[in-house]
Structures are given as structure tokens and as C-alpha cells.
Amino acid sequence: MRRARDITPAGTWRQEKATATVTLTFDDRHRRRLKLTDDSGEGFILDLQKTARIRDGDGLRLEDGAHIRVCAADEDVLDIVCRDNETIAKVAWHLGNRHTPVQVLSGGTLRIRYDHVLADMVNLLGADVVRCHAPFDPEAGAYAGSHVHGHGHDRDHKNSEDHSHAS
Fold this sequence. Notes:
Elements: E1 2-8, E2 20-24, E3 30-37, E4 43-53, E5 59-62, E6 67-72, E7 74-81, H1 85-97, E8 103-104, E9 109-113, H2 116-124, E10 128-135
Parallel strand pairs: 1-4, 2-6
Antiparallel strand pairs: 1-5, 3-4, 5-6, 7-9, 7-10, 8-9
């Protein structure tokens, strides 16, 4: 069975060279090891060294060097349209306070997964909400990706007693 061991970020590989595509929901694009089926029905194993966030357009590099292109699946989402900067700031703050994954679209529009409670909340904050089916590819967040140790490098090391990251 084919095995994908690495992720090649979107924009760093030639997507037209993909040998297959796989369409995945947001939840299925945050994995380490999983048996998957590409869009043509052929199975493969995702076998990464550690859990990773896979983005729309990324390539899953197979052991033979070929790539499977990742496509974000259409999901039940809410597009939140804010009329002004004050509204977008309030909505963004409240969504962030709830650790809600948010995709930032053009024109002051935010996209979140469908949630009737959040839809009511953002309406009360003055935003317009449109429920639709569309790909969901939220921002990675400030702490996403590899382990960052807090001072400009990602090497693991022990700190001396006089060097602490505690507040």
C-alpha cells in the first residue's frame, strides 16, 4: 500500500504533478497516522513522524516521491460578515475567547464551523451570518506548527537555573 510520510506545503511544489487528490474535512487534516482513501478510491497510509496540520493545497509526499494533493472538503460553515472594524474586532475577540477555529476571508468576512449558539452570539454583536457549505481552512494560530521555545529557535534544551520561561 502507498505510504505518505511527509507534507510538502502548498506553493512549494507543482500541484499539477499530483498523482491523486484526497478531499478531507478540517478535522481529518490534523493527523499523524491514518488509513485514507484518495478521491479515485485507492487506499494509502498517512504515516507522519508527529501530528501535523495539513492545509488545503498541501502535498502528501509518497515514498516514491509522488504527491497526493490535499483538498479541503466542503463543510457546514457560517460566513460572518462584519459591517465595520469595530464589529469585526468584537466578533474576533469573542470567537478567539472561545478558542474557535476561524478562517479569515476577504472583505471583513470570517468563517467558522456551523454552531447555532455562535451564530446567535455574532448576530447579537451586529454581524450578518450566512450558513453555507464551503471548504474550511482556518488560521493556524499563534502557537501552531513546530515547538517554539520562546526565544527565536526551536531546539529542545534544558535551561540553566538562571534562565527561565516562567512568569
